[in-house]
Design goal:
This protein is an alpha+beta fold and 207 residues long. The protein has 2 domains: 81 residues, Glutaredoxin; 105 residues, Up-down Bundle (Glutathione S-transferase Yfyf (Class Pi), Chain A, domain 2), CATH 1.20.1050. The protein contains 9 helices and 4 strands, in the order βαβαββααααααα. Helix 1 runs parallel beside helix 3, helix 1 packs antiparallel against helix 6 and helix 4 runs parallel beside helix 6. It is globular, with a radius of gyration of 18 Å.
Amino acid sequence: MSEPMVCYTFRRCPYAMRARMAMDYAGIAPEYREISFSNKPPSMCEVSPKATVPVLVLPEGEVIDESRDIMLWSLEQNDPQNWRGVNPEIRDATDSLIDCNDKEFKDWLDKYKYADRYPEHPESYYRSGGEVFLSRLEDLLSLNVWLLGDTPGLADMAIFPFIRQFSMVDSDWFEQAAYPRLRQWLGEILESERFQRIMIKRSLWAF
């Protein structure tokens, strides 16, 4: 008997969130193991020394422990609505957007979210830094319903969990900020059945 496919996850982690979105879309249903960062399962740490989620362990033992790689692997298994895109230009644009999100925007998000840890600047300074990316997304959404076209794609699903976090730091500010298309885009995803499915609450995995 083969081992089950296992995914170590944490419900609110944006990286784990986007991995679960891609797996749900591709029809992949691993055994989810909800973890606590204050009491990490030794089995997770053994297979992934970075010791953070998500970690996907395939039945044959292969480990994929980067959320972006889990998304791409999922789409390689099944991509019914062409999230990855076949056009090289769309793929390049997708990779560029996700790179910007992961390498630049995430840093501003963390400092905005935890501004008290970075007292050298006020919270508004870090928010303004993050707004550069918000403006870029708003401009893209003025051209298309989704970031890179008229249907959802990999860029949308890889980026939205981080925009969600940004919006929650000061929800009153976000609701009146000059990003109406971005708010509509985010709301569309958060109200979707898929998002509701991947956000169900699970008990902590008892290891």
